[in-house]
Each structure stands twice: as structure tokens, then as C-alpha cells.
Amino acid sequence: MLQDLLWEKQTGFVDSAMSRCKIYFIVRITTIGFLRFVSLNLAAAWILFGFTICADLVVKAQSEPSATDPQVQKIYGEAKAAEARGDLAAAAASYQSLLLNAPHLGPAYNNLGALYLRLREYKQAAEILEKGLKIDPKMSSASALLGIALYEMGDYGGARRHLETALRANPKDDHAELYLANDLIKLNEWESAASHLRQLAQRQPKNQEIWYLLGKVHMKLSEQALSKLNEIDADSVWVHEISGEIMEGMKNFDGALIEYKKAVEIAPKQAGFHYALANAYWSLQSWDAATQQFREELAIDSSNCMAQWKLGNIVLEKHEDATVALADIEKALATCPNLVQARVDRARALLKLDRNEEAAKDLLIAEQSNPEEPSIHFLLAQAYRGLGRTKEALAEMAIFSKLEEDNRAAVAERAKKVIQNQENATPQN
Asked: pTM of the entire structure?
């Protein structure tokens, strides 16, 4: 955020003085019609006073070195040279000297403030940037830097004001917006922080820090929502449902079952609750209990394609009649034609029924959506083999083997790192 001193664009103190003179005379002339009825002498005195003030301002401005002054240019060059060689303290000293010679050059304050930030001299940065903004309130970079300095000093309210000012002037200043998001988190302004982080994520989709902060904010919002649910009624159906979802997300399926059962007991006719209970059973491979609950869900909501698909999936997992499985899965795909998992299971059923051509079509669609899934290539190899397309079957098996090998290597590497971390954490005698 350190900007070069664009001297040629600096109108300087002289223009500022002239502008103030113009404003003074506009105001005075508009009132002269009134004053002449009161006192011509008073009107003349006001005009003379204005000339005196303006003359003093212009003389003072003209006596100050301009941006093109050789001495100013010399000091500025020294500052840039010191900065280039990494001597930030010397660069800051040069800017200090420059401001002693030309105290109305706004960008010099911006650059000196930026150097103080890099030197972690936050109080000095804030003081110099505030002075610079008095000279030129439109320096958005100085507003952003001041906001950052105040943030680092723990003045989150002050930081917010200046960072928001900077963003209004330059909405795509990612650095300022990221600081503002962090600042809003410090102020517990979770919704506002999430809004800024989502905008940043759109502009920087590969920035992991942004996604980490967005996840952190959403977790806090979830905690607040759960706390509010408990506050309203700790035994409500919604509290049990969300508690079950949290436990399921932690792979605590036994705990999730307890919560989902309570939700079903409280609201047995509410859509979605039987599905959640069934899905927990399905994850535990408790096929009969899952089948019963999926059917209960479909009796309430016949359009639940996930429940319909998983009924067919259970039939396949139990190695039962593929025709029955196919009927359930096709009902699911009739409602949700883009359900890739259902297409894979329909292909499995079709393969069992020796309908290899149809199976291959489903698998090719699934492969386009998820080319890194090994099982799809394995099944496609089976379909091609059944069709007598040996070369293509071998190619798919090669892809399957490579993906499986990569997955095993990744798992082994993660396990190795876990063991190393445990060994490093173990105190040595």
C-alpha cells in the first residue's frame, strides 16, 4: 500500500490557499447585498480583511518548497534508495526530513506511515497518517493504513471507521478489506465480517486464509444460533435435530441416533426428521432400521430423492434383487436426474442384470462429474468387458489402479505425519 510520491499530480498548498480565497469571496459577495443596507463601511472592511488573509495564505504557500523543488526531490530520492536496499529506518528518517521542508505534501505522510507500519511502530504510524489526512482527506491509501495501524494497536472501533472509508473510495482494496473483516470479527460483528469475506473469496478463490476466516465466522454464527435455540426451548425438535447434525458431522453416529430419535418422537409427521434418523442408521450399515425410516420419510415426502435412492442402495449392499434396487433408483432419478450417486448405483444394478450398454452410459455421465472417483472407473471397466471392448476395459482398469495407488499413498503420508508429530510431542528422557 506504499504509494510513490506523484509530485506532478500534487496541486500543493498554493492551490489550496487559492481555493480557500475563492470560497471566502463567494460567501462574502453573496452577503454584500445585505451588508450595504447595514453598513457600507462594514462591507468594505470585510472585503479588505479577506484580501489581507488571502494574501498572507498565498505568500506563505509560495514560500514553501514545492514537489518539484530540487531539495525535495533529492530527499525523496534518498528515501526511495534507502527503502530499496531494505534500510527502512533510514527511509523513514528521509521522509521526516522531507516533511520538515515541505509539510503540505500529502503523499509523504502516506509513505512515512507505511514505513512505520513495516517497522511495527504503530503509534507513530497512526500519528503521521492522521496528519496526512488533514492535509489531504481524499488519500484512501492513508485511510487504509491508518485503519491497519489502529487495528494493530487494538483500537478496533477506530480502525473500522478508517477501513470502511478506504473501501468506499477503493472497493477492491483486498488488503484493507481483509483487515476490515478481521476487525469486524474482533468487534463480534459476525454477519458483516461474513459479507466482506464472501466478497474477498469471490475475488481470491485460492486464498486459504479467507476461507479459514469465513469458516470460523460461520462456526460462530452456528454457535449463536444453537445457543438461541437452547435459550428458547432446550427440548425442542429443532434443538435435537441440530444437535444430531453436529454429532453426525463429528462421526458420532450413536450420539446422533439418540438426538434424531427424540426429534422423530416430538414431530413424527415432520418432513426430514425420519430421513435424518435413517441416514444415521445407513452410515452405521444398520440396513433394516435405515430401510424402515427411509420408507417413513417417503410416506411423508414422496419427492425425497435421496431417501428413494438409498432404499435402492441398501438393496444392492445386501446383495438382494437388482430389479427391486433398479426400480427404487429410477424413481429417485426421475425426481433428481443430476444425482450422480444414484447414476452409479443404477449402473451397478444394470451390470448385475447384464445390461452393460445402459450401465456404461450412466457411468460415463458420472465420470464427467467426478473423474477422480476410482469406483466409477472400476465399474466402467466391468461394463466394457461385458461389451467385449477389452482395450477400453484395460484403460479404465489402469486409471482405477492409478487412482487407488494415489489414494493409498496420500493416506500413508498422512499417517506418517501423524506418527512424526506424536513422536516430536513425546518428551525425551
From this structure: 0.61
